[in-house]
Amino acid sequence: MHRFAFNCAFTIYIAISGVIFLYRIPYGNKWLDQWIFDKFFVFQFMSVITIGLAIAGSYFNNLSYIRIGNRRTILRRELLGYYTQGFICVTIMFLFIVCGALSLREINFIPHLTNWYFRYLLGIILFINVMSCLKWSSNLIVRRYCTLIVFIWMALEILMLRPYIKNFYSLDVSFLFSWVFHRGAESYYWLLGLIFITTLLNIKISDKRDFI
């Protein structure tokens, strides 16, 4: 599937989700709350995003690596391709959320939605960076299933590990992706710090890649 075709399919998917969420409002469901919570982020958003990232990654192969030549240039183009796909998807979704909020005459939703837009976006960037680090592992299984491995870890961390620690030990602990849902401004510093660290790791790994 071409990247443009995926973006069109993603737009239709989000539109259908929006229609379903609208029908659920009379039954006590709030519009914004249906989009902004951990299970939606993992199962209904990131699960689809991983397909888009796989499509974006299909444009990079040994032939394109040899044609580009420079390792840093390869890394830059590869990450930018992933980032662009993630940015397009999260922007499409939040445009639908804004349109729905306006049609329902929600008030004071802009600051709340802006906060979550950047949280979702930073979460996607961190996902991409970790995936890219694993993509060039010396272990064939890790390399081949890097996207699935990162997705499974994200799901376990956000939906099982963090709630378990919070319920049984009364500790609000975040590791990687759970910082997306950690309350407080410090979560932004952690997300940006993790993105910076994983970017440096990507550069270090990239310098040791053997593309031929």
Describe the structure.
Keywords: Membrane, Transmembrane, Transmembrane helix. The chain crosses the membrane at residues 7-25, 40-60, 80-104, 116-134, 146-165, 187-205. This protein is an all-alpha fold and 212 residues long. The protein has helices at residues 3-24, 31-35, 38-57, 62-68, 71-103, 110-135, 140-144, 146-169, 186-206. The protein has one domain (3-206). Helices cover 77% and strands 0% of the residues. Helix 1 (3-24) packs antiparallel against helix 3, helix 3 (38-57) runs antiparallel to helix 8 and helix 6 (110-135) packs parallel to helix 9 (186-206). The longest helix has 33 residues, at 71-103.
Distance between the termini: 27 Å
Q: Please give the domain count.
A: 1
Low-confidence stretches: none
Helix content: over 70%
Helix/strand/pairing category: mainly alpha
Keywords: Membrane, Transmembrane, Transmembrane helix
Keywords:
212 residues; 9 helices; 77% helix; 0% strand; membrane
Spell out the blueprint of helices and strands.
Elements: H1 3-24, H2 31-35, H3 38-57, H4 62-68, H5 71-103, H6 110-135, H7 140-144, H8 146-169, H9 186-206
In short:
By secondary structure, this protein is an all-alpha fold.
